[in-house]
Write a structure and sequence with these properties.
The complex is a heterodimer. Chain A is an all-alpha fold. Helix content of chain A is about 45%, strand content about 5%. In chain A, helix 4 crosses helix 5. Chain B has 3 domains: about 60 residues, no CATH class; about 180 residues, Oxidoreductase, molybdopterin-binding domain (Sulfite Oxidase, Chain A, domain 2); about 110 residues, Immunoglobulin-like. Chain B has a 5-stranded antiparallel sheet with strand order 3-4-5-6-7. In chain B, strands 10-9-17-13-14 form a 5-stranded mixed sheet. In chain B, strands 21-28-27-23-24 form a 5-stranded mixed sheet, with no helix packed on it. In chain B, strand 4 and strand 5 form a beta hairpin. Classes of the chains: A mainly alpha, B mainly beta. At the A-B interface, helix 1, strand 1 and helix 3 of A face strand 5, strand 8, helix 2, strand 15 and strand 22 of B. Strand 1 of chain A pairs antiparallel with strand 8 of chain B.
């Protein structure tokens, strides 16, 4: 429906308001009748494994896909080593990621190679 | 403030680049948002049309922005999806589902969906559900979190029972301070805090807060919380707990992670601060006034002549008083016509005439004013969590 309505000068605002109301009513009439007494069963699509090979990849694949898919890392803005270290540390301290202290730096270093900046 | 001025990998993206990215989306099933690492696949998830995938586990799916031009209500199969914890059930039996009401109450309840539908007066409220982090990808400097563009929002007609009526049935005891909400969403590891939210007693018992079993006249899609979710009109979606199965009346303010540490905004001034500043914080609450142009996208080529430009506006529950429109980057403004009024919590559509001359470019902007007097600001609000963005939106088009 976009870009299709070219309206005459005088009636523009009034017609526009009416057209808005019309589109709202159409949109409101779509969903199937409600019946909550059903069992809804769904299959979620497979996730993508986005960690590329490199030093630290095994660790990231083992630890950073336990609770969520790897796209969480790749949709973030590019981050510095310090910022990635803060993220990895947050995963351990806040969300209880099973990480040894000695694993934080190597994972952060690897993540900079995947989605980093200076 | 111009969407076209953001940088991707150090290179300025022109309106044309944005446009070709959108056309590519149709062919290759990807979409590229105008910020770094903005490439996203479109994914097919159950009960959903193709949506923009931020993360596949847990599902976090964004509504492609052009869909907001198709009507004032967002269809259920286009509604954005946001889960925190990947332990969400993929099978839910609506008949066996029970909502436990307990804590500081005289009578504990275990309500079925039929109990909710038949035992309480049904109310229907059109209301915008907007993720606290909607538009986080546009923050400058960027902040970690779900990197949404502007599509982590939707408007639906929610039908359900008043939470206040449910609490009255249970009988709230003296000393009640908050009501705490939990759903079927579970952490993958027990070391991660369960997703729990709480509302103060006066808000919880206010007439517009409902336990919703219908969305736009149909069942809720599973990914939006089938069979019931909490609806807190005017408030950010973090409180709209999905697959709600546990309501607990408590005697002191809730101290769990998702209230005490996460979803907080600076407790100074209007909540917006300078990057790097540290302040005390307070839980995020109501949405700020926003408006968007929906009939055109940045970089669009339009034909010369008179056309209707259309958009949406909403706020945190006072309702939209007016929308102003500019075709010269904010130098001059004209008042737009408002569409049908579906209530103070709903999207309000607006439209305005634009006389476009072939060969010229137009920097379009819209600015909403709410009934409480709040107006969209010309500079971006920055918060450490990536919340509260409500800058005057703008985009550029050229007439050919």
């Amino acid at each position: 429906m976009r870009n299709t309505s070219i309206l005459g000068a005088a009636a523009c605002a009034a017609i526009a308001a009416a057209a808005l109301a019309g589109s709202a009513v159409r949109a409101a009439a779509v969903a199937a009748p409600p019946n909550p007494n059903v069992t809804v069963s769904v299959t979620l699509p497979a996730e993508r494994q986005l960690f590329k090979d490199g030093a630290g990849a095994d660790l990231a694949r083992a630890k950073c896909q336990i609770c969520h898919s790897s796209d969480y890392v790749f949709t973030q803005p590019p981050m510095t080593r310090a910022q990635w270290l803060a993220e990895v540390t947050k995963m351990k301290n806040v969300y209880g990621a099973p990480l040894e202290e000695s694993q934080l730096e190597p994972i952060a270093a690897y993540l900079v190679t995947q989605n980093g900046k200076e | 403030m111009r969407r076209s001025s953001f940088l991707i990998g150090g290179a300025a993206v022109s309106g044309l680049a944005t446009l070709s990215a959108r056309s590519r989306a149709l062919a290759q099933e990807t979409i590229t948002e105008p910020f770094a690492n903005g490439a996203r696949p479109l994914g097919s998830f159950p009960q959903k049309r193709p949506l923009i995938v931020l993360t596949s586990r847990p599902p976090q799916l964004e509504t492609p922005f052009r869909l907001f031009n198709e009507g004032v209500f967002t269809p259920n199969d286009a509604f954005f999806v946001r889960w925190h914890l990947a332990g969400i059930p993929t099978k839910v039996d609506g008949r066996a589902f029970r909502i436990k009401v307990h804590g500081l109450v005289d009578n504990e309840l275990a309500l079925s969906i039929d109990d909710l539908r038949r035992g309480f007066e049904p109310v229907e409220i059109p209301a915008v559900c907007q993720c606290s982090g909607n538009s986080r990808g546009f923050f400058n400097p960027r902040v970690p979190g779900g990197q949404w563009a502007n599509g982590a929002m939707g408007n639906a007609r929610w039908r359900g029972a008043r939470l206040g009526d449910v609490l009255k049935r249970a009988g709230v005891k003296a000393g009640a301070v908050q009501v705490r909400f939990n759903g079927l969403e579970m952490p993958v590891l027990p070391t991660t805090p369960d997703f729990i939210k709480a509302l103060d007693m006066d808000l919880a018992t206010s007439p517009d807060v409902i336990v919703a079993y219908e969305m736009n006249g149909g069942n809720l899609p599973l990914l939006n919380g089938f069979p019931v979710r909490l609806v807190v009109p005017g408030y950010f979606a973090t409180y709209w707990v999905k697959m709600l199965d546990d309501i607990e009346v408590i005697a002191a303010a809730d101290q769990n992670f998702w209230m005490k540490t996460a979803y907080r905004i600076p407790a100074v001034g209007d909540g917006c601060i300078q990057p790097g500043q540290t302040t005390p914080t307070t839980p995020i609450t109501k949405m700020r006034v926003r408006s968007f142009i929906t009939s055109l996208a940045d970089g669009d080529k339009i034909s010369g002549g008179r056309r209707r430009v259309q958009g949406i506006a909403f706020d945190g529950g006072s309702g939209i008083a007016r929308v102003d429109f500019s075709s010269d980057g904010g130098a001059t403004w004209t008042q737009a016509a408002l569409g049908a009024d579906y209530g103070k919590y709903s999207f309000r559509q607006w439209s305005v005439a634009l006389d476009a001359q072939a060969g010229r470019s137009y920097h379009l902007a819209c600015r909403a004013t709410a009934h409480d007097g709040a107006v969209q600001p010309a500079t971006a609000c920055w918060t450490p969590g990536g919340y509260l963005r409500n800058i005057i939106e703008s985009l550029s088009v050229s007439a050919g």
